[in-house]
Amino acid sequence: MAWENRRYxxxxxxxxxxxxxxxxxxxxxxxxxxxxxxxxxxxxDGDMPxxxxxxxxxxxxxxxxxASMVNGSGESGSFTWSEIQSVLDTPGVWYHxxxxxxxx
Amino acid sequence: xxxxxxxxxxVTTGLTHLYDQLSPVxxxxxxxxxxxxxxxxYSEKFAVKSKGLAKTGLAVYGSKTAHAHLKGxxxxxxSSDYWEMAASTHTDLPSINFGTFIIWARHSKANxxxxxxxGWGGSSNNGYYSSFGQVYYTASKLKPQWYEYGTSSSAxxxxxxxxxxxxxxxxxxxxxxxxxxxxxxxxGDWGSASNSSSANRPFNTNTYNFHIGSVRKGxxxxxxxxxxxxxxxxxxxxxxxxxxxxxxxxxKDRFNY
Lengths: 104, 257
What we know:
The complex is a heterodimer.
Chain A: E1 6-12, E2 39-45, H1 50-53, H2 81-88
Antiparallel strand pairs in A: 1-2
Chain B: E1 15-19, H1 40-46, H2 66-71, E2 74-77, E3 83-85, E4 100-107, E5 115-122, E6 130-138, E7 141-149, E8 158-159, E9 168-174, E10 181-185, E11 191-195, E12 207-212, E13 216-217, E14 220-221, E15 226-235, H3 241-255
Antiparallel strand pairs in B: 1-15, 2-15, 3-12, 4-9, 4-15, 5-6, 5-12, 6-7, 7-8, 9-10, 10-11, 13-14
């Protein structure tokens, strides 16, 4: 599986203004947020950037703020690819429930 | 007008948007912008409601490298990899009213989540006012689907009842008429589905946020694409079966070799 070196973090939107987005792969104008807009997602390849380390509202990798449990990757606030998919693919938290797929 | 981006001849009549990683015009070296290969004057001439437009930002990866150009596609990790256009307005989105939308994509089969490959999002959290392609996970299958909703009572959904594989496919969505639309992979060679709902098309001021790699519905994005996405094309008219075949033949050797 690809993305072995990719890590993700989730932090409170209150820190987006002071966060150095040049240290991660995401762009502030288009970063992904949860449904309520209270948390944002950022990602990087390799070691955790210092800017990410400095975030004070990083969500623990053992559980996100919406209690969608995931296995920790061993570094606080750092999700692996499979872990972040578990979080992002939880309906009603990071995306709205999928609509019916039946023929219309 | 001829368009040469390294493939065999494609259909150009009615073509309003051509986005291809191989084109130095569409994706310049070092750029973080993905442009329409076609000039605005050409797009405006043939477009119903839109003209050529540049994307408004890139979520990840930064500047494009020569490697991306050599590959001729982008890779998406399913988290926040997407191109977003016309973020908040309806007026400049590339509408496909009575037209054809084509996109080349490959799913990695890394998991079985319902995921969007791209298209038009809407203002509703329920997915109304939207028109987009996705893999819809149901009955242990990742079914390719074109999902189009005006409101809760106007669904126009085409579902191919097969489990998508991990190969490159050309997705084509056509509005065959005001009451019939067709969705196919590889001009129907891999699979196809039609829908004849009489519901109105969803395009109105609630339709916006055109995306490649994901779809935005209301206040959030749906799960994004996991895999690769190559070029995409938007036509302001309904391509014939023969023309869709021509589009497929133009690039099949590029992706399926």
